[in-house]
Amino acid sequence: MAGKFRFSFGPWNIHEGADPFGPVVRRSIAFNRKLALYKKLGFDGVQFHDDDAVPDMNSLSPEQIVRKASALKRQLDAQGLQAEFVAPRLWEDPRTVDGGYTSNDPKCRAYALERSKRCVDIANALGTDLVVLWLAREGTYIREAKDSVWATDRILDALNVMLAHDRNIRIAIEPKPNEPMDHTYIPTTGHALALGFRSMDPARVGINIESAHAILAGLDPSDEMGFALSFDKLWTVHLNDQNGLKFDQDKTFGAVDLRRAFNQVRILDTHDYGQNGELVGLDVKAMRTQKDDAATRHLSNSRTIFLRLLEISRGLSQAKLKAMTVARDYEALELYIVKRLLGK
């Protein structure tokens, strides 16, 4: 086991407490103040949406966007931080209510492609070669509204536009089976990998697996990670937890199912995740009940739980594990794992 673990989160993970069913409950924190918290909380990397890095980017020229992103890179350097990735935020603009790449309006599709190219420019200016692509509204509320063959081809076209815009950029698709759309295209890791292999440069298309998204698809996150690792395509992760097939909860990692979290840590460590510079990304949100002065504990708690589970995993007797698996004594194996998780 030789995983190398450094951690990242996005500025949206320090948030005002709104959820799908209610308004904000905490004061906003200025972006610069958020950056100052990263190292204090034990994090090295910053995840960005394009407009986290360059606010109001739709009103700026490409040259202005790059200048503002370059100024932010100097801020990150001063804090000893790195940009892990940049993701185009295509789901909040009025032009993307019907999806970006799969919109039925060609003008809206053109906007989505142009915005995606600007996202690549921002990634370059911030010193990262990784773009994460969450296909949030690339779906439909009723299946008759769109042809899924056509929609898949339009998403593939978008991949190729970004890959052609910069010959060094890598794209990690972040699959999710639902929300905000009822029927989502490219909902699982397998879909995302298959799409990448159809692209103009499959070597530059990989995967970002979010724990909750896998759970919402009825799948185990560690198995999804293992599937991507077997293809050498797991380029980042979004760790969190999820209480069943509900809305995307982004709960503290390991807070719902500790054994499920353990197996995510174990698969990453067993297969040397991080040795090529990959970061352990968190996408967790504080509970609405948290007061302002305690609204970052979900981040430090998630990191603490990850590292404790890593310690437990590395402390397992490999000889015992081998003996139990060779004998197929899975009851003994299960009790051994559970006792270790109980601290016995």
Oligomer: single chain
Which strand order spans the largest sheet, edge to edge or round the barrel?
3-2-1-10-9-8-6-4
* Average pLDDT metric: 97
Runs with pLDDT <50, length 5+?
none
The percent of residues in helical segments reads: 40-55%
What global shape is seen? globular
**CATH hierarchy class name:** Alpha Beta
Largest sheet report: 8 strands, parallel
Order of helices and strands: EHEHHEHEEHEEHEHHEHEHHH
Structural class: alpha/beta
| CATH homologous superfamily label | Divalent-metal-dependent TIM barrel enzymes
Domain count: the total is 1
Content of β-strand: 5-15%
- CATH-derived architecture: Alpha-Beta Barrel
**CATH fold name, please?**
TIM Barrel
**What is the C-alpha radius of gyration, as a whole number of Å?**
20 Å
Strand tally, please? 10
Calculate the terminal CA-CA distance, rounded to whole Å. Answer: 22 Å
Number of helices: 12
Can you describe this structure?
The protein contains twelve helices and ten strands. It has helices spanning 31-41, 50-53, 62-79, 106-126, 148-165, 189-198, 211-216, 221-230, 258-270, 297-314, 318-326, 330-341; strands spanning 7-9, 45-49, 82-87, 130-134, 139-140, 170-174, 183-184, 205-210, 234-239, 280-282. Strands 3-2-1-10-9-8-6-4 form an eight-stranded parallel sheet. Helix 4 runs parallel beside helix 5. It is globular.
